[in-house]
Specification:
The radius of gyration is 20 Å and the shape is globular. Helix 3 (about 70-90) runs antiparallel to helix 7 and helix 6 runs antiparallel to helix 7. About 40% of the residues lie in helices and about 20% in strands. It is of the alpha/beta class. It has 2 domains: about 5-150, translation initiation factor eif-2b, domain 1 (Four Helix Bundle (Hemerythrin (Met), subunit A), Up-down Bundle), CATH 1.20.120; about 155-360, Rossmann fold, CATH 3.40.50. The structure holds 5-S-methyl-1-O-phosphono-5-thio-D-ribulose. The site of 5-S-methyl-1-O-phosphono-5-thio-D-ribulose has 16 residues, from helix 3 and strand 10. 5-S-methyl-1-O-phosphono-5-thio-D-ribulose binds near residues 69, 174 and 330.
């Protein structure tokens, strides 16, 4: 995998004039997919160039790019690269030969349904192409998927902000921002819109062990936009709710079952339980591309487990004894009954149920 533009930056330097960096986390440039390497934030701005679908697959697996919608958008661009490769190698049957690459992409991060959504949508479009090079047609489609995601986030951001009252204190988990999407963000889209309306007094972000998406990515993304943020340890969340009148916990989603159960970053479920205990609203912000109408309930959603080293090490520093076993599920399921509001680009579903979600998706 080629890398370019690497630079070690001190935090002050990063902060200066780079507010749009997170918005450029996924770019199509010179016929390549260029990704901001999220493994290296916040200390290093490093871009990764992907010139083949295999490199896109590797980037998704290794979390160069992460966050359900961002994974879907990247996969769509990856399919453009794959279609070119396969059409050049076997113009007569590239739609068959590409299938192994599509299957490999689907396996890269199995919980994020936007991946399946994007692959299915691109595969359907592949059927519409003729004998000519499918690249340009599919590239237009990938760019459309990218643009639509940003548009959806801006719309749901406004809907979500409408639920907040002035002076609100909120807590968010993981990173559901511009870095995790085509741009603007889902949970952070709501927070951005509410902040622009001067409604938010405090934004708390938890660290989000083990990968530190909250500390490394969300705190970075918000400070880039000069939005003040207060970082807490994951284990401080209950005390925060006990001591302050939080208005909302606002999170994104990796997959939403058709009964309203939500798969999202590990720790989301515990925040939902705590929020219910303390009378705090629990908002899930996600585009409808995150709803999986084939998953009847949360228990049907495959939960990705990742390497034990994510738990036992940080940047090569060993944190635990070698003999310790590790369980590292990276997502959990929050039952629909704990969700106060599901906010999508089509509108808000309060206390989601199977029936309400069906109506939302049919509209
Ligand atoms: O493992 P990650 O970093 O890909 O997990 C990301 C999340 O869980 C996000 O909350 C989710 O994808 C929503 S992003 C808009």
């Amino acid at each position: 995998m080629l890398r370019y533009g690497a630079s070690r930056l001190g935090s002050n330097e990063v902060r200066k004039g780079m507010s749009s960096l997170a918005e450029q986390a996924i770019r199509w440039c010179n016929d390549q997919l260029v990704l901001l390497d999220q493994r290296r934030l916040p200390n290093e701005i490093h871009f990764v160039e992907c010139t083949s679908v295999q490199e896109v697959n590797e980037a998704i697996r290794d979390m160069v790019v992460r966050g359900a919608p961002a994974i879907g958008v990247s996969a769509a661009y990856g399919i453009v690269l794959a279609a070119r490769q396969h059409h050049a190698a076997s113009p007569g049957n590239w739609r068959e030969t590409i299938e192994a690459d599509l299957q490999a992409l689907l396996q890269a991060r199995p919980t994020a349904v936007n991946l399946k959504w994007a692959v299915t949508r691109m595969r359907d479009l592949m059927a519409e192409t003729g004998d000519e090079d499918p690249g340009p047609y599919l590239l237009d489609a990938a760019k459309r998927i990218h643009r639509e995601d940003v548009r959806a986030n801006r719309a749901l951001g406004e809907f979500g902000a409408g639920l907040l009252e002035a002076g609100a204190e909120v807590l968010t988990h993981c990173n559901a921002g511009a870095l995790a999407t085509g741009g603007y963000g889902t949970a952070l889209g709501v927070i951005r819109s509410a902040h622009a309306q001067d409604k938010i007094r405090n934004i708390f972000v938890d660290e989000t062990r083990p990968w530190f998406q909250g500390a490394r990515l969300t705190a970075w993304e918000l400070t880039q936009d000069r939005i003040p943020v207060t970082l807490i340890c994951d284990s401080a969340a209950a005390s925060l709710m006990q001591q302050r009148r939080l208005a909302w916990v606002i999170v994104g989603a990796d997959r939403i079952a058709c009964n309203g159960d939500v798969a999202n970053k590990i720790g989301t479920y515990s925040l939902a339980v705590m929020a219910r205990q303390h009378g705090v609203g629990f908002m899930v912000a996600a585009p409808t591309s995150t709803v999986d109408m084939e998953a009847s309930e949360g228990a049907r959603i495959e939960i990705e487990e990742r390497s034990k080293h994510e738990v036992t090490e940080y940047e090569g520093h060993v944190l635990a004894p070698a003999g310790a076993k590790v369980w590292n599920p990276v997502f959990d399921i929050t039952p629909a009954r704990l969700v106060t509001a599901l906010v999508t680009e089509k509108g808000v579903v309060e206390q989601p149920t199977r029936r309400k979600i069906r109506i939302l998706m049919e509209n």
